[in-house]
Amino acid sequence: MKKILAPSILSADFKVLGEQIRMTADKGAKYLHFDVMDGMFVPSISFGMPVLKSIRGGTSQVMDVHLMVMDPIRYVDAFHEAGADILTVHLEACQDMQAVLDKIHASGMKAGVSVKPGTAIESLSPILEQADMFLIMCVEPGFGGQAFIPESLDRIKNLRAMLDEKGLKTDIEVDGGIYLTNVREVIDAGANIIVAGSAVFNGSISKNVTGFMEIFKEYE
Known about the structure:
Oligomer: single chain
Shape: globular
Mean pLDDT: 96
Strand order of the largest sheet: 1-8-7-6-5-4-3-2
């Protein structure tokens, strides 16, 4: 499966956000990861629809929106209108997972489902054929810069095995504590979409993105 980098703008410098986004695109990052936090599902508060709409107008990258909010079905239409291409919701935050997935698909967006580190991967079994992407959090959601949880590798392997058993080539995205030093491990475990915040936006963005892209080429 094609390996894709999704830089997380949570770690970007918003004074020069447009310029930094262009740097990631120029060096080959096809996605842009957009973390939405409501202060309830996670303690932090980030940004919402107006910021997404302004970014959407300045890049052709895929807008990969991760909703860390309670009852996310309330916001599906608004994020579609703001320019989201993929809308990922948390299994733990949805009262009726099927209804949320149906609404996302009806809007024309791809639907992703995410789980926290403490949620059993097996809990995704009923919706393996319903989602377009699964996002495995490798840190506790809500804060950037955390260390990668080693047990995440087994969780990625288990999910990929569950998908393989059904003959599904569904994307597995991973987020949290991923750097050039450990990205091969998560790819080898079965992930193909890599979210990176600090690893992209700290230091030379161009050099960092190029480093990821060179590793991805090893898997072509």
